[in-house]
What does this fold into?
Amino acid sequence: MTLKNPLFMGIDAGSTKIRALIFDIKGLLVAQASMKMPTIYSNLGWAHYDPEELWKITTKVINKSLSLIDDPKRVVSVAVASVGETAIILDKNNKPIYHSIAWFDKRAKDHSKKIEKMIGSEKLFKITGLTQEPIFAINKMLWLKEKEPEIYEKSSKWVIIANYIAWKLSGEQVTDYSLACRTLAFDLQKLKWSKEIIEELDLKKSFFPEVRPTGSKLNYVKDDASRQTGLSTDCIVGVGGHDHPLSALITGAIKYGVMSNSIGTAECLLTGIEKPSFDLRLIDLGFAEHVIVSSDRQYYYLFGSIWTTSASIDWIKNIVAGKESFSEIINKVKAIPSGANGVNFFPHLRFGSPPNPVQNSRGAFTGLSTDTDSSTLLRAVLEGVSLDTKHVFETMIKQLNTSYEEILTTGGATQNKLLLQIRSDILNKKLKVINLVETVSLGAAFSGAIAAGYFSSFDEVIENLDFETEIVNPNENNTEFYDRLYQDIFVPVLEHILKINELSLKKR
It folds into this structure.
């Protein structure tokens, strides 16, 4: 049975917030709510969440979002998107028995190297399409096995955050193909879990759940979940997926000839490919080949991660802002000329980005003086994160041997108009900006809509949606300057910074 005026909820569990948004059948945002998800830093390089608090926050944002519409029963479906590696560890009774390890947690960096030696980087890539990094699930699984053996023995499930929320709502523990791809245990050629990798590392097979297409139907919302969230027991839970590719999928970006740039706490460049190349050159460059699967097709894509875009902006804002609002700071930044008065920022605050995927990379400022003020620092950060994106973009198009006239741009950072203009100038490309910030939630919501039978495919969804877009064109007065800045300063200095980081780490 279908409602005449249905609504669809999409939940986005990101690095810093959990959001619950409600859309109508044309993709119009009807209601939304969000709450911060507190990050706990217990050791250097460690970051985690409280799984119980995570679920409480989720129930609160769902309730809040539902309170803003006339009838909660109009919400006929819900699905969840999330970051790709944050997981909850459950025992045989499905109770959390350890903290939820964040995707950017670095505790497994030594185990990442150990796995690379055991299996080999080329073999890992040929199976998974991934370049080894400590963020991936199997590294953290091995860390848990060796460092917390009692917890490991009691553990039964390793559940990615999107799948955890969907399970709490529906009672079904499954994952989708795009999230499975982020474990480093999924066979991209066979489209199933890699028996070879799992057995080689002697990991629990129960950690690797059934994989279903995005938009598949799970159960209806359970009675207890209905009481906690306010969702109706007639509401269908659908299979969501990984945040960045789901955003690209719902905006029509996963297809040939389209380059998508999703900008959030982290950032990615993503473009559709016919099939995985398994080109070993991608290992050194740090690119990944992935798939997101719907009911009617497989969407393969090349994926380049930039780890600290909004995170860099938030970091410097928190340091220099004082009592000023962000808008007040931005107004001051607008008066700072291109080039930030000679100050340069290199944004590798967590990991290195392609083509320098160095696990222990560190960020840096150059060109500082006693005259450097907070506005100049922020200008340098906005330019630095965009120069880093250019580095990834130039490397990607060289690898693909193609070019792009425009870049489809989405994500929360699109609200920062100064950043968009700087980015367009630095890339020397037209940006086609989707004027809906929450495209991740939209992708999740319409995954649920497909699961509930209101659409047969994502192609049908996209045809039905009506996006407002904004075009940001490069300022020709700035493009030549930024190209010189990129070629003469950013790229060569970044190489030196990487060498300095390597030397510094050797002396510790």
Q: What stands out?
A: The first strand starts at residue 7 and ends at 13. The chain is about 40% helix and 20% strand.
